[in-house]
Amino acid sequence: MAGFNKIVGSYSEAMAGLEDGMTIIAGGFGLCGIPENLISEIKRKGCRDLTIVSNNCGVDGFGLGILLEDKQIKKMVSSYVGENKLFEQQLLAGELEVELTPQGTLAEKMRAGGAGIPAFYTATGYGTPIGEGKEVREFNGRNYILEEAITGDFAIVKAWKADCYGNLVFRHTAQNFNPMAATAGKITVVEVEEIVELGALDPAHIHTPGIYVDRLILGSFEKRIEQRTVRSA
Amino acid sequence: MALTREQLAQRVARELQDGYYVNLGIGIPTLVANYVPKGIEVMLQSENGLLGMGPFPTEDEIDADMINAGKQTVTAAKGASIFSSAESFAMIRGGHVDLTVLGAFEVDVAGNIASWMIPGKLIKGMGGAMDLVAGADNIIVTMTHASKHGESKLLTKCSLPLTGAGCIKKVVTDLAYIEIADNKFWLKERAPGVSVDDIIRLTEGELVVPDVVPEMTF
């Protein structure tokens, strides 16, 4: 690698160093903005006992759902996992563990992890099963629970455009968890639709600065739609 | 007659005010968007990172990168903004959203809400619901007043695991509009043709009934 150039030439290079038992933070919401080829590479590598931190777990046969097929996932940290039959089977069979985490808390855990903040107080989940066993502290007459930050051995991210330094721009609501995931990996791997010339991105319009990005790869994407909803023209 | 889903949405829509930023949950709350009163502007927030949600796209406009929190394809309205999940929940948790409308299994007189988990059944997750109820000051719960078996969903104490504690002040059911204060339900309006006695019978928690209970009109 030369200087700040983060581009790698293959998916196997992009995910080099991933081992059994590691924690991976993944961007995406539903099937929108998911690093679909990096997920396929994890399946190809066959690493097991993975902890995956992602808002959802894909669907049967696509996205993170494909990592369930060979039982590569030990634990999911997610806010909603309702779209997936295989997930349900493995959960009921005790082959898979799930840590349900409120969506905003999950986003903040990633953000805090990437920002060097080990924990934070939030009112979300106080008085519910999510708050059980967690430290409670009162601020200005209201109760908050202490939630710990998350970091990953790897973060896998999908962006729209990048320059070779790894400066990233996301497209529409495919942004979602990706910017936080990008900050929270020891090794952050990003796949993009387009790599543009250095200087082509307006510095003020970059969503994720390249300092967070370790490896960058150009991909092509299926972008499957989960709920195709239209109005008549 | 109990309210239809559409009428329930219409009744909730009357709580909208000009300039409100609003988060609508999945199901009946989503229908509220169809009944925004004429002459006012509201902006819909979708917690996956969109403020200013527009209508569903036409076939030509469909874009896999443009979805709402229900994972449906949507469009962005003029003046919309798009941002990360952390930014989205900063808005929600920080109390910047003026009104949140969501469904529930149960609410109780203490303003507790249970909406995400039925023990013994498969648990899919809370999504953003816990953040939404913790962050909003102004929340409207929409649900049927009682289960199909006639069991009240307005209780002295929620029986299911909570989504949030002490956060609900307004409930619109298919039978009534009810407010919650001082550990009591306060009956404010009834659905057209629904008797106060029916509402009392189907409300397990303590219900304060005024002398006159206005009937909703549509």
Structure explained in plain terms:
The complex is a heterodimer of chains A (233) and B (218). Chain A has 233 residues and is of the alpha/beta class. Chain A is 19% helix and 27% strand. Chain A has helices spanning 11-14, 36-45, 66-69, 85-92, 103-115, 178-183, and strands spanning 23-26, 50-53, 73-78, 97-100, 119-122, 136-139, 142-148, 152-163, 168-169, 185-196, 215-218. In chain A, strands 1, 2, 3, 4, 8, 9, 10 and 11 form an eight-stranded mixed beta sheet that branches. Chain A has a three-stranded antiparallel beta sheet with strand order 5-7-6. Chain B is 16% helix and 26% strand. Chain B contains five helices and 13 strands. Chain B has helices at 5-13, 28-31, 85-93, 129-135, 196-201, and strands at residues 20-24, 42-46, 50-53, 76-82, 99-103, 106-108, 113-114, 139-143, 154-155, 170-173, 176-181, 184-190, 207-208. In chain B, the strands form two sheets. Chain B has a ten-stranded mixed beta sheet, sandwiched between helices. In chain B, a hairpin with a 3-residue loop joins strand 2 and strand 3. The two termini of chain B are 12 Å apart.
